[in-house]
Design goal:
The protein is an alpha+beta fold. 38% of the residues lie in helices and 22% in strands. It is built from ten helices and eleven strands.
Length: 316
Amino acid sequence: MKSQTLPKPSPQLLPVGFYDLLFEEAQKNHQNINAALDVFMQAGYGLIKTPLVEFEENFSNQESQNSFRATDVISGKSLVFRNDITLQISRLLSTQLKAKTLPLKLCYVGDVLCAKSEELYADRQQTQVGVEIIGCDFEKSNFEIIGILLSALQKIEAKNLLIEFSLPDFLEIFLDEIKSEKKTELREAVMKKDISAIKELAGSDGEIISKIALLNDDLESLIKEISVRFKSEKISQELAKAQKIAEFLKENFAGVKIGFDLFGDDKTSYHHEISFDVFCGDFSYAVARGGRYKINDLSAVGASIYMNRLRKTYQN
């Protein structure tokens, strides 16, 4: 039987930031998603699946920013295509999960759509695989989420992992303790990592604040330098949190590199107490991100793996 060839395709382009996955790449992506979910579910996290589209009224104006919108032909109401799955968990906590005993341990998977992307690759369709502990403010839950996230990434053979930690509350505590007269300007300079502005605004404290604002891999030396200069109990408590994180990782994930950006930046504004990004190899974007946050007045901690970014690390 004579083999046939497919007709030459006509040039049909997809919108910027959308993509096809074919054959081996699609299979690998599917396997990675299932492997990560297996880690979460075997640890007792219940899987949820939420819809791609919701009524706009379910989100605040801020939450629905950077979203695709449409109009429902049945109800006539405005619709929003989700750009983050965590926001939908808020609705579930007020409805179907309202009577559940806390803390709740959840995991999820799904695509999200962003109207715009600031990234070099401009992916506007992204797949999130995430894990959450809701209704628990114990420090050990932070370590549980970090541990299960790194275990999932190791299972899907993410190579050369680097986890960067921030303490999102530390900057406000620090600025209050040093009684800066230019608190607003200094906060902005720190968030932007503007070292020249920091040194100009902070005077004699400029050098040490600049060091804290940058990424550090020698936490012990940095803490000693801070402790010599500042005797505040609140600052010491924040530094003790960082030390505990470092000790946990060294004991349980010795092969994972650790970096500390103690003040954080604009990405950490959603979180409090702890925030972290996980990088893979030389890829410049975080393949996973997480931290502690508030949801429906409940304390929660969670993390998401961005499968589209992870996929690019295998291609590099």
